[in-house]
Give the backbone structure.
Amino acid sequence: MWRATVLTLFPEMFPGPLGLSLAGEALGRGVWEIEAADIRRHGLGRHRAVDDTPAGGGAGMVMRADVVAACLDATVPAGDPRPRLYMSPRGAPLTQGRVRSLGHGAGVVVLCGRYEGVDERVVAARGFEEVSIGDYVLSGGELAALVLIDACVRLLPGVMGAAASGLEESFENGLLEYPHYTRPRQFEGRDIPAVLLSGDHGKIAAWRRAEALRLTRERRPDLVKDGPALV
Ligand code: ADE
């Protein structure tokens, strides 16, 4: 079973929204599993301290390497094959390709930072790879972990049914997805493009490819600068 282990100071945030809808139903059916390990339980002293002031001075606090390591070592066996990801705005950007490969594996171990981040030494010593979900800063890694896990779980067999077979989805073919329409035929004076009602599947497919390309050039020229990967 695909399994996510999340190391966090806020275990109550999991499964959170992943307990609802398709991901939640699949969780209930045992298609995947999530475990949130409370880093605070490994904190030091009467106050269970998990952070300290940054070496070299400066603002904020840094999560202690020994505390994070203790939490990981108590939660994840040494030979666990799952990749260890540390959610951080400094990380390599998450892509659909990476999501796909994570979805095909045994699961993920995800470390969520708070404050200014985590002591660099535990990241190195325990083989964490830094992953970012975008060029903006969240107040902690938890929401980023939920995003990453959601993106993986929806690809697991049996989670999305027919919809996830979507090779047509945004990014799956290197392009943004074409626009969708449904009833009513007219909405506030706007029609469904006639080709979609024509019944000509060849024409419909060609229109969708052209729209996908047009939208991608317009909104994400970075995705098509060397021509689309696959059209
Ligand atoms: N933690 C804070 N901001 C983040 C981001 N953009 N991606 C991943 N983890 C984060």
Summary: Helices lie at 21-28, 65-75, 96-104, 120-125, 142-153, 201-219, 221-224. The first strand starts at residue 2 and ends at 8. The chain has a mean pLDDT of 95.
